[in-house]
Write a structure and sequence with these properties.
Protein name: U6 small nuclear RNA (adenine-(43)-N(6))-methyltransferase
CATH topology of the largest domain: Rossmann fold
Family: Belongs to the methyltransferase superfamily. METTL16/RlmF family.
Helix content: 25-40%
Number of domains: 3
InterPro entries: METTL16/PsiM, METTL16/RlmF, SAM-dependent_MTases_sf
Organism: Chilo suppressalis (Asiatic rice borer moth)
Pfam families: Methyltransf_10 (PF05971)
């Protein structure tokens, strides 16, 4: 679902850019553009080169800056970056900071995109920190080429700290805010496993270097470290903020801040088909939650489904045993899952169902039995085994059997009918212990089957628990 309607109300990209105008203005954009069947100018969003040229031309057209984006570095998506900057504008207005605003960007990257947008739009004074030497050099070139040295300063920092080194270097300076877009992944393997292989490929090309995509412990550990360091510098930074790529991590960080009684607020950054989240907190006297409350998409809130898991015979009744039982059920349904966190008596995963393998189980077994009996009468034993496997595969992976001719032993189906282009269900599942009981909690995220599909999976787990 396109999310442009949920963008920040001041985001200029709520209305898509005029590609025909860009092609007429910039020869390099014209070279990558093409006409679709309707006569509309478009580009190949799966081509990294096209994304780089698009971003470069938009920066020139809309902000009058010339930014060189290296081929091996992350291509910043402007609608998302602008959403973040506009949200910080709202926070600064809410705390009555209007002039001479000082900002700190953590991990500024080769484009220094946040300092550049903040300086060009608002004349904010920005310091950008970066651990990668090549990115620092390229960012300095971009800043110099656009005459922004008076507003933007860069600092090379060691990877062992997030804000400590920069603030220790700038001992006499205080900041109105800090911002960062931390790497999502904890390892190369985590990056490779981040997308379900059964899902369709993403619509946009994948860009970025390992330094920009991977950090020890992933973004959750990075943000927790930032929260820890924020205690030390609570008098020198008014508002701490970060972007978050996984909704589950937002929930965990909100719990951390609540446990420490730190005042916070959060928001959603919506653009294209992608949602990211912003988290802000402060150690000062601002009641930031009341000043700028959480902004969510205008949709119904997801109420988690919570169920107390009965004890299993001949098994230890604990979180680990119950989690393993749920995982075995998911495997039997061909539901993909990814472990997100395991701390004490709490186990969290995200799961994705591509096809409906849980509905009409009795009917499917009857159909399978009828087809098998008919085949036994009409086919040789050695051929029957192969046919049964094929039929079983068709039945167990289909959403519904459109037509079964038991007399002839044929299943008449339409290939397109069974083809899945979007996940049926995406959801979080948490197994936890409270008092002497084990519970599981599921929360709907997305999917064409909607919340009703999630309720069906929950009912299947209940029915097959013992």
């Amino acid at each position: 679902m396109a999310l442009n309607n949920f963008m920040h109300p001041r985001n200029i990209y709520r209305s898509p850019p005029d590609f025909a105008k860009l092609a007429a203005t910039y020869p390099e954009f014209k070279c990558i553009s093409k006409l679709d069947l309707s006569g509309k100018v478009t580009i190949d969003f799966k081509d990294p080169k096209s994304l780089r040229i698009l971003t470069k031309c938009l920066l020139k057209s809309d902000f009058n800056v010339d930014i060189d984006i290296p081929e091996d570095k992350l291509v910043p998506t402007l609608p998302l970056r602008l959403n973040y900057v506009l949200w910080i504008e709202d926070i600064m207005t809410a705390i009555k900071r209007i002039e001479n605003i000082q900002g700190l960007d953590i991990g500024t990257g080769a484009c220094a995109i946040y300092p550049v947008l903040a300086a060009i739009k608002n004349k904010w004074h920005m310091i950008g920190t970066e651990t990668d030497e090549d990115s620092v050099k390229k960012a300095q070139e971009n800043i110099k080429n656009n005459n922004l040295e008076s507003l933007i300063k860069l600092t090379k920092t060691p990877s062992s700290t997030i804000i400590s080194y920069a603030l220790d270097e700038e001992k006499d300076q205080s900041f109105d805010f800090c911002m960062c877009n931390p790497p999502f992944y904890s390892s190369v393997q985590d990056l490779c496993d981040s997308r379900n292989p059964t899902r369709p490929p993403p619509k946009n090309a994948f860009t970025g270097s390992p330094q920009e995509l991977i950090t020890e412990g992933g973004e959750l550990n990075f943000c927790r470290k930032l929260i820890t360091e924020s205690h030390k510098y609570k008098d020198r930074v008014k508002i701490f903020t970060t972007m978050i790529g996984h909704k589950y991590n937002l929930k965990e960080l909100v719990q951390d801040l609540s446990a420490d009684e730190i005042k916070f607020t959060h928001t959603e950054f919506c653009q294209g088909r992608v949602t990211r989240w912003g988290l802000a907190w402060t150690h000062q006297d601002y009641d930031i939650y009341k000043l700028i409350g959480p902004r969510d998409k205008l949709r119904k809130k997801n109420t988690p489904i919570i169920y107390s898991l009965p004890k299993l015979s001949d098994c230890t009744y604990n979180v680990e045993t119950c989690t393993e039982k749920i995982r075995s059920i998911f495997k039997s349904l061909d539901v993909e899952y990814k472990i997100l966190n395991k701390i004490g008596n709490k186990f969290t995963m995200q799961f994705t169902a591509i096809k409906n393998t849980w509905s009409h189980q009795r009917r499917k077994r009857r159909l399978l039995k009828g087809v098998e009996q008919n085949n036994v009468k009409k086919m040789k034993v050695n051929d029957d085994e192969s046919n049964r496997d094929d039929i079983h595969k068709e039945i167990s992976h289909s959403d519904t059997i459109k037509e079964v001719d038991v007399a002839n032993g044929n299943i008449n189906n339409n290939a397109e009918y069974f083809k899945s282009t979007e996940p049926l269900i995406q959801a979080y599942l948490k197994v936890f212990k409270k008092d002497d009981n084990i519970f599981f909690e599921v929360e709907y995220l997305d999917g064409s089957a909607g919340k009703e599909g999630l309720h069906q999976i929950v009912q299947y787990i209940k029915n097959n628990w013992k």
